[in-house]
Amino acid sequence: MPIIPKNAPYYNVWDRMDEYAPHEPDVTPEQLASYRKTLYGTVLGMQVWGVDGLNIRGSKDIDFTAGGNPARYRYVPNGELWIESALSAPDALGVAVHEGIETVFMIKGLPYSNAHDLSNVFEWNLRQAMLNGSVKSPATHADAMCMAEDWLHSKIEMVRKSLKSPYMSFPPAEVSALKQRLRSVGHAFTTRVDAEQGKRKAGEIVNSPFGQLRILSVKTIGSLFEHPFLKELTPAQQKLLSKYDKLDVIKFTLVK
Ligand SMILES: [Zn+2]
């Protein structure tokens, strides 16, 4: 028995796109009228609406949280971004940046999980800037939308690079330890096998859940026993990697 019944009215997998495809919005005019509350402004040419989260979760999507965009959610009309109206102006600024850039990444062809991870990097940088005072928190939601637009334009080079660079994924379980290592040591290592082996070159710039990375070196080895960090690998990692006779040990750092 599936845990979520297939016909559950509150969970419709059709609502979500893992890859963007042009579509008609899956929402009725009545629903739209009840969801949209306040027009906050525009970001990247899209209208940003403050929406009624209580109503959306009660009648359309129980998982709607903080914000949504038409590249991910079929019920958000094209050319609109939605932000839950319960969020304060500074919080709405973070969400507007995230949803705006995620839409661009997905329409340009990145799958949702990659686009979402990259959007988190932009949102995180902005939230840090607000916390340390280098960006002043907006007083109103209208101000927040102007600031979201400015922030994204100031990062246009980073956006361009992100769109051009390939994406390198990491097992979710390893992300926080690697983040820690990048912060404390300045570089980290990953081992690539199978279809991932032979893909990366030294000097290359890639996107990742940590932001942009520079590949510092790639060392190809013929068995796990040549692995320079054999002792640091967990038994589970060793077991997995021992199956391969070609492995890339990749050293990488964050692009500042
Ligand atoms: Zn997202």
Description:
- The chain folds into two domains: 13-164, no CATH class; 172-254, no CATH class.
- The mean pLDDT is 90.
- It is α+β, with helices and mostly antiparallel strands and 256 residues long.
- It has eight helices and eight strands; from the N terminus they run H-E-E-H-E-E-H-H-H-H-H-E-E-E-H-E.
- It has a four-stranded mixed sheet. Strands 5-8-7-6 form a four-stranded antiparallel sheet.
- The relative contact order is 0.10.
- Zinc ion binds at residues 98, 102, 116, 119.
Q: Secondary-structure blueprint of this entry?
A:
Elements: H1 29-35, E1 36-43, E2 46-51, H2 53-59, E3 67-68, E4 80-84, H3 89-107, H4 112-131, H5 141-154, H6 156-164, H7 172-185, E5 188-192, E6 205-208, E7 211-221, H8 235-241, E8 247-254
Parallel strand pairs: 2-4
Antiparallel strand pairs: 1-2, 3-4, 5-8, 6-7, 7-8
Helix pairs in contact: 3-4, 3-5
Residues 98, 102, 116, 119 line the site of zinc ion.
Structural class of the secondary elements? Answer: alpha+beta
The ligands bound in this entry are: zinc ion
State which percent range the strand residues make up. 15-25%
Distance between the termini: 49 Å
What's the rounded overall pLDDT mean? 90
Helix tally equals 8
Helix content: 25-40%
Outline, from the CA principal axes? elongated
* DSSP E strands, number: 8
- How many structural domains in the coordinates? 2
